[in-house]
């Protein structure tokens, strides 16, 4: 519902709600959800069932299936060869490294840390997109989907985006990881370990004041796990932020007209406004 804004929020999210509403009034499509990790209480909901493109953010589903196959023995320390079909000039480091083969856990580390395009495609070839889809269905994930590999260009026969999701489902998925409930605790912990290395803190998490290259340990009582997706006209983030007062799981997705650079900057500013309020919530004393 482009250009329309619906939803509600805990009073502590008034600035974030207004910022997201301003994006919607300017023609963007916005979906956002913030929930208390412990209780599942909704703190913010803005069109949280709206399915939108989320660029590479759907890689979290790939990491879940990779972790599950490592845990049940279908994958081991296999070394995967960098293949011509996997090449893409998007995010990541493997395309710049001399090493042409890597073990599966190392590739998952690259995917978690930098959304590595080549590593994503190599893992997807090994794990299988059908297995990723079946795992999502088994977990009760109905609208979040990884639908294609990373591509430099998308032709008429390709999916228009690599993945799609509504913010509400993403926030619940992150909560499940935080609670060790996605498949089981070992799988959840593997995925959290990979995502905790993420170096993109440019959106919501840009307000957290953390070192983008090293934020696994507690820092002023904060610990964040973040996964982002960015492409032309798309900015999306899902995460978990633990603080001295509480923990929240959140997601926000925005699609917008990227022909105007000022609109892109406005999207980033709005997401950081929301991040400031997320930060304030987890620093506050328990409110339950």
Describe this structure in words.
It is a single chain. This protein is an alpha+beta fold. It has a single domain (8-283), classed as Beta-lactamase, CATH 3.40.710. The chain is 36% helix and 19% strand. It is built from eight helices and eleven strands. The protein has helices at 14-25, 59-72, 104-114, 117-127, 129-138, 167-178, 185-195, 261-283; strands at 8-9, 29-36, 42-46, 52-53, 79-81, 101-103, 145-146, 163-165, 223-231, 234-242, 247-255. The protein has a six-stranded antiparallel beta sheet, sandwiched between helices. Strands 4-8-7 form a three-stranded antiparallel beta sheet. Strand 2 and strand 3 form a beta hairpin. Helix 2 (59-72) crosses helix 4, helix 2 packs across helix 5 and helix 3 packs across helix 4. The longest helix is centred in the last third of the chain and has 23 residues, at 261-283. The protein is globular. It comes from Curtobacterium oceanosedimentum.
């Amino acid at each position: 519902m482009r250009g329309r804004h619906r939803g509600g929020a805990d009073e502590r999210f008034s600035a974030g709600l207004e910022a997201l509403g301003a994006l919607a009034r300017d023609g963007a499509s916005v979906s956002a959800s913030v929930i208390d990790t412990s209780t599942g209480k909704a703190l913010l909901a803005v069109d949280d069932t709206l399915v939108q493109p989320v660029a590479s953010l759907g890689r979290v589903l790939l990491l879940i299936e990779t972790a599950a196959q490592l845990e049940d023995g279908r994958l081991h320390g296999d070394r995967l060869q960098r293949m011509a079909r996997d090449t893409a000039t998007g995010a990541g480091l493997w395309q710049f490294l001399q090493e042409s083969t890597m073990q599966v856990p190392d590739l998952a580390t690259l995917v978690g840390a930098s959304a590595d395009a080549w590593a994503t495609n190599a893992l997807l070839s090994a794990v299988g997109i059908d297995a990723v889809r079946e795992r999502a269905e088994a977990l009760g994930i109905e609208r979040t989907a990884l639908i294609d590999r990373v591509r430099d260009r998308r032709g008429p026969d390709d999916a228009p985006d690599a993945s799609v999701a509504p913010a509400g489902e993403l926030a619940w998925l992150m909560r499940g990881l935080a609670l060790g409930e996605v498949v089981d605790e070992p799988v959840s912990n593997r995925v959290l370990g990979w995502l905790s290395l993420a170096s993109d803190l440019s959106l919501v998490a840009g307000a957290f004041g953390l070192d983008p290259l090293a934020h696994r340990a507690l820092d002023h009582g904060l610990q964040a796990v973040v996964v982002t997706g960015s492409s032309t006209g798309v900015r999306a983030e899902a995460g978990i932020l633990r603080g001295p007062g509480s923990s929240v799981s959140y997601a926000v997705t925005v699609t917008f007209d990227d022909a105007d650079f000022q609109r892109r900057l406005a999207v980033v500013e709005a997401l950081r406004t929301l991040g400031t309020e997320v930060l304030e919530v987890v620093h506050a004393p328990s409110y339950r």
